[in-house]
Structure formats: C-alpha cells, structure tokens
Amino acid sequence: MSGSSADSEVAKAPPIVLGTNNPAKRAKLRWLLTGLPFRALEAPPLSVPETGATFRDNAAAKALAHSAAGWAIASDGGLVIPALRDRWQPLRTAEQGPELLAQLLASRPDRTVAGWWHEALAIACRGTLRATFEAEETHGLLQRTAPGSASGFWVDQLLWIPEAGTTLAQASQEQRTSIDRTWNRLRRELRAHFGV
Questions:
Q1: Domain that holds residue 182
Q2: CA 39 remoteness from chain centre
Q3: What pLDDT score does 105 carry?
Q4: Overall number of domains in the chain
C-alpha cells in the first residue's frame, strides 16, 4: 500500500478516545490499539471518580464518560499483594503510592513478597458499554525500595520478574513484550473481539 493510500485508510478509521490523562497509560492504550481499525485521540481533561467496587467497574465508568461522541477505550488497574491483606488495597494503588508500599514491605520479616498487576479494560461507544476484559498475569516479587518518582507506572520500578532477572521498568522493549503478560493478554482479547 502506498503512503497516500495508508494515510487515506487512517483518515477513514473511526476515532477512539483514550480515556486517560496519564501519558504512560495513553502509551499503553495506543499499543493495545495497534493494528485495529481505529484512530487514537487523546482525551480532553475529564475527571472520572474511581468509586467502583472492581477494576472493571472503574474502567467501564471511564470508557462511558469519554464515549459521548463516539468510541472510547479506558482501563483501571492495581497491584495485588495478598501477603499484605487489608493493609494494601489494590483498587487504591495510585492513591496509596510507592512510599506506603515501601513502608509496608519494610515491616515484613520475609525477604520476598509476591504480587501481580491486575488491569481491566473497557470499550464504549456513544454511552453504551461494548466490551470489558480483565487480566492479572504479570506476576513477580516486590522490591523494598521506593522509586524516586511516582509518575507513570511506578509499580514497574518495584515489580521484579524472576524469570527475566529484571524489573519491568528495567526490561528492554523485547523483554517487556514477553514478560508484561497482563497487557499482552488484554491486547490478544481486544484483537480477538474485533476479529483481528
């Protein structure tokens, strides 16, 4: 296909709003949409309360809020750490932050604490929820040192993937493609939903 034909096809693709103001999350959503018949658009500033009882509820609320004029995609996720029981709330991962997590991990006698990333994804169009997906397959061990910045995906700096010998943040792009299993599964399910 020539460059002008490719540009024409992209222009014809329906726009889909990326339902987040977080640049790191925007990049993930763009990656999920690669190869699908959509043209990604950044969302205007829009605050959607994360008050759902589940990640799926929150992702759906965000997608619906951004879908008034057409297609929208959004997600919500958090770090699950069973060993911390009720002291760590996965649904409040962003609010609790890396400093609290470092304190909680430092108070534990065991040297390694297992955790995994859970992410829910939702697609909506003109106020109607079209599909939701969930995955929690990126398992690892949590580092005890808080990262210097809570921007982007700070959990990636703390989640050590033993089989790769690295944290998600330190992994090469090639490594991430194989070890970030949560987002890989969401991408497969999204593509299957649209028949790609």
A1: 3-193
A2: 19
A3: 92
A4: 1
